[in-house]
Amino acid sequence: xxxxxxxxxxxxxxxxxxxxxxxxxxxxxxxxxxxxxxxxxxxxxxxxxxxxxxxxxxxxxxxxxxxxxxxxxxxxxxxxxxxxxxxxxxxxxxxxxxxxxxxxxxxxxxxxxxxxxxxxxxxxxxxxxxxxxxxxxxxxxxxxxxxxxxxxxxxxxxxxxxxxxxxxxxxxxxxxxxxxxxxxxxxxxxxxxxxxxxxxxxxxxxxxxxxxxxxxxxxxxxxxxxx
Length: 227
Description:
It is a single chain. This protein is mainly alpha-helical. The chain has helices at residues 5-35, 43-68, 71-97, 100-113, 116-126, 148-154, 169-207. It starts with a helix and ends in a 20-residue tail after the last helix. It is a multi-pass membrane protein. One of its GO terms (cellular component) is membrane. It comes from Parnassius mnemosyne.
C-alpha cells in the first residue's frame, strides 16, 4: 500500500541512493577540476569537493536509518538535512539573484587570485587578452601574460592584422559566467526542495510502526516461588 511503512521505507532508500549518485558526481567533477590545469588554484573546486563528501555522508546516514528504522539516526538525519536545506536554498537564491556587475566583481577577484600560468591558459583557450582592458600600469608590469600569440590567432583570418587585438577575457566569459550562476542556482534550488521532501518523508517513516516488529513479552513461570 502506497503511503504505508514499506512504501515510505523504499522511497527514503531510493532518495538517499539518488543523493549518493549526485554526491559521487560532485566528487568526480571536483577531482577532474583538480587534475585540470585550467582550474587548479580556484577555491570553488574545494567547495564542490566538500559539498560532495558532506552529502554522501548524510546519504549514508539516511540509508542506515531507513534500512534499520533507527529512531536516533533518522532524527539526526532530519535535523542535518533540514539545516542543509536552508543553506542550499539561500545559496541557490543568491546565485539566481546575482546581477552582471556582481558577477564581474567576483570574476575580477578570481582573476586576481590565480597565477600567470592559469591566466595564460585562460587567454589561449578563450582567445582573449587581459581581464577588462590592456592598459599597462605605471610600474610597467601588467597583471596578465603576453598576448602576442593570442593576438596572432585572433587576427590570422584578417587581411590587416597590425592593429588587431583580442577582446578582454571578461567579454568572452560574460555569457559563460552568467550561465554557470543560473545553472548552479537552478540545480541547487531543485535539490533543496528534494531535501525538504526527504525531511518530511523521514519524519513520516520515523513515526510509522514497523509491522514486522514483535514486542518482547516477559514469560513468568506458573509456579509461585514465594511458596
